[in-house]
Target: Permease of the major facilitator super
Amino acid sequence: MFGTRFFIELKTLNAVIQLFYLSRGLDLGQIIFLSLVWTVTSFICDVPSSFLADKFGRKKLIIAGILLTSLSTFLLFFAAGFPYFVLTYIIGAAGYSFFMGADHAILYDSLKETGEEDGANRVAGKYFSSASLPKIIMPFVGSFIAKSLLPSQFLIVIAIDLIGTIVSLVIASFITEPKIEKRQNQKSNLLREGLKLIQSDKILLKFALNKIIIFQAAFVYWRVYQVLLKNANMPTVYLGLVYTFFQGILFLMFWNTEKVQNKLGEMNFILYPQILGLVAIIASFLTSNLIILFSACVLLLIVGTIRDPLFLAQMQARIPSFNRATATSTLNTIKNISDIPLLLLVGYLANINITYVLVISGILFLIPLLFMRIKKEELVI
Model:
């Protein structure tokens, strides 16, 4: 699983992806609306794909997801204009939905099969680090290759990402799927039981909402940060350094997540990223200093996902293995539903004034702080 995630996450284009979209004829609002396309597609695909994963095997869904990701990456060679990018996003989002949920489920059930589920937090951290490691270098490489923002430079960067997905597919073919608990009357009951579980476990829902909203706060900033920093006259290569810094820190934090959590305490580890994200948004409003803007950007990109290993372990521990992927994707569906009005609003506001996006991000950071605080007694492992 680690090698599979590593190569599918090269993301060499990511450091300049918003500038790539602009060069292919999109405006800022359309860039954000692409995220809405991703959300709607994920909403449609998440639960059915994970039902199939629980029913027929997670490995098959992972391989299907990588194939779709490869196709969406290949189409970027020719994409120009909003409709074409919508197609690439539909295919890419379907691939992501097939892959995610199934990979988390196969990871946790592998630990459960060997009696090591108590180590889920540590292993999840190392698994997430496999996604961060390539992004320490590759987006910087991408920003260096595409520093003049020429069409031929973008094509080279896309080719690197395509090769990564092919390598990921080869590695995925060697995955050994763990045995999972089965029930005689699964069929369509899996989805019903997933919904019932979430409705009955308010703490599980609270963890999910806290995680979702903080991610959304960072995500809406991420969708415009390259344009924000470019407008502040930051050189293109430094956009790649943003990825190097934030993914480097994420890699170290994920790899040592248990040590960091033990040092800070789990409650502080949950709380501090929310506060720091809000502080970074405020700093972005108050200054045009490139060093402060760069630092705030790195911090905002970190806080959106730094808590994922802890939240994954806490949430997976509350879900039975027979429909783990389905319940996980049902939680993802909650995120996708909430994304729709959010991205419609952000896309509209971005075309009026890009700083309105910062306002939305700040409000999102505030919501869990005020209304969805996690309590110590709600932690299970």
The chain is about 80% helix and 0% strand. Residues 183-187 have pLDDT under 50 and may be disordered. The CA atoms of residues 190 and 293 lie 46 Å apart. The domain at 2-378 is CATH 1.20.1250.20 (Growth Hormone; Chain: A;).
